[in-house]
Amino acid sequence: MGNFLSxxxxxxxxxxxxxxxxxxxxILAVVVIGICGLAxxxxxxxxxxxxxxxxxxxxxxxxSGGWRQTLEEQNKVxxxxxxxxxxxxxxxxxxxxxxxxxxIAKNQYYLDHxxxxxxxxxxxxxxxxxxxxxxxxxxxxxxxxALFAIIACTGLVAGEFSEGTMKTMISRPFARWQLLTAKxxxxxxxxxxxxxxxxxVTLGGIAAFFGTGGTGTPVLMWxxxxxxxxxxxxxxxxxxxxxxxSTIVYLLxxxxxxxxxxxxxxxxxxxxxxxxGGSFTMLIADNFSWGKLIFFADTAFSTFVTGGAPFYxxxxxxxxxxxxxxxxxxxxxxxxxxxxxxxxx
Length: 345
What we know:
16 helices; two-stranded antiparallel ribbon; mainly alpha; 345 residues
């Protein structure tokens, strides 16, 4: 065990010797701060009336009867939409059911607790939400984290083939599967590091540009088909953890491509292309019931607890199982290719 840990240490040392390994967390922090600043400027401009609010950003309008009647009317409309969707034969209609049920349950929670939701009264149309923890949760840096993790992974795995240093690695007294596992542990550790950096900088950036108002307000989440009021810090950690799992899924895909192709350029390009290709699989899943079984359609794990299941008939647990099966296939392919092929050739 000690020898293997030392091997992981060697891989970490090689990873951190790359200049890009140090630059990417800095870029990530700059991007977070930059987006916070731009969002603050946009919010201020909307508040001053110099910029109009788009349809996607507009807040709920209060009807003449007050906020309670507003929520009651919304629930009637959404419940009618759910009833119609359940009878519909169109997959796109059915896919909206869970998110609509979540919105109905949220409104009912506010009514039952006589709590006026901020989205009814807040006219500033804040880009990230109305409370501190909602802003943190809605920020979303998963794409950049996945992108940087893929670059680090392909550099450490396929990069050694491209640079010719893999011949030296396999001459050491370790099994090939140990060498590959050490690389996997190193890149997963780096991915966790990037996620922690993004989370901490987001906490600070949101506080600096938007303040910490509403830190004591619980966040409503969709857990097990019902609304739960979760403390803001716990809700943000859960969301960050689910986003990290999503990133690791893409990381394992890049890991597999790196070991199989042995080309850093090909593995990096194909991994990023497939990550973008997720939008195409979402389109398929939005129109065909079997589409939810496609790998890329199920990777947005945090969506299940913050907005409802994106597809009809799927839960967070099922999405994790589906992606777990794909990831097992990725890892099996990577290990078979690395241990059986002529690495030194």
